[in-house]
Amino acid sequence: MEVEKFNHYEVESVTSKRHSIGEMLAAMQPQDGDDEQKFGPPVDFSFRDAHKMSDFTKATPRQGVHSYVTIPVTLPSIEPASSATPSGEKEQVADDDTKTKHVKYSSKAIRFSNNSISSFDGFATTLHAILQSTETLEWLDLSFNDLTKISEAILELSNLKVLYLHANVIDDMKQVDKLAGLPNLKTLTLHGNIIDGAKGYRQYVVTEIPQLQYFDFSRITKADRDKAVTWRQLKIIGHHKKKKKAEKKD
């Protein structure tokens, strides 16, 4: 496939209409040698009535007090437009008329809260389509959605520091284990999920994600960590006792 350059991006030209705009935008990557990157406020896609991740690529973010920092990108048209001349011959329309203009946002934070997202399907593609760079993303808000699981796709966000997942419907504590793979994660929220009613909820999270400093908008203290260690030891002892009882029955 031929590679064409448009503004600050490179994109492989496609000939199939099956490629969505979001997929095409996600394929665009900044070229080396761009000016020093400037970051704007959080890109706010809250209350967009989105039901799946790809819906955000078609939505316009909410405007706040501060203006977004945007980078214009131009998508090549699938088929060049043409018009008939008086003699009946087809004439190619100027290139500027056959390209669709879009923007990517330069920000370290993005908000997908207060929607109806139930799956992480298309998560990575959506982020790449919206943001100039996902490598610099530090703050992600997915609160007040319908998520039941935590996707390992989040682990690609190696610089993520803040993750809001409160007010979803996560019902399996083991889902939390995946977040231990985010080395820079300092703040996490999970309250309002089904799991927050589980016995040892806070101790489990503090134990499984030791790099956390704040959990559910509360600072993790030394007492919290000591309590989590004790809780874990008791769980291990309890597990061994159950195992021995099971072996005796056999």
TrEMBL record:
| The protein's name in its UniProt record | Leucine-rich repeat-containing protein 51
Q: Where in the cell is it found?
A: Cytoplasm
Q: Which InterPro entries match?
A: Leu-rich_rpt, LRR_dom_sf
**GO CC aspect terms:** cytoplasm
Q: Which domain of life is it from?
A: Eukaryota
Q: Where are the transmembrane segments?
A: none
Q: Where is this region: Disordered?
A: 79-100
> What are the UniProt keywords, alphabetically?
Cytoplasm, Leucine-rich repeat, Repeat
Which species is listed as the source? Phallusia mammillata
Ranges annotated as biased composition (Basic and acidic residues): 88-100
Task: Report the SUPFAM superfamilies cross-referenced here.
Answer: L domain-like
